[in-house]
Amino acid sequence: MTEKSPGPASIPAAAVRAAAAAAAVLTVAAGLGVRAVSGGEVAKYAGDALYTVLIHTLVVLLVPRVRPLTAAGTALALSWAVELVQLTDLPAELSRHSTAARLVLGSTFNAPDLFWYAVGAALAWAVHTRLTARRAPALL
Question: To the nearest 10°, the Cα dihedral for 28, 31, 34, 36?
Fold first, then answer.
């Protein structure tokens, strides 16, 4: 006899949102922690990856039933869009007037950031997939 374990659809949306909110807080804490213990390129590129992880968690918070690949793709697309907007003067101008704008939009385009955003999306996808995967049927 086989029995299937409950899949992601059986998890209440409120529980998914609570987990996503906790993951968002942990992601911000990780970003601040990396900044506190390291500097230079390590902190910068870890921050880039974590930026995309944070966007992924916010997508899940807003749409609890989103598939991992969709959430990761959305997070990556938004991260890349923000980076590409930095080719214009708009983020730099907004950053001069707002710390929040500087934190969210940055100010200067940096091509390697595009790669690190992809790393963050892949990491978020892998964790999300692992957490929502259905278990293989168990033999009783």
Answer: -70
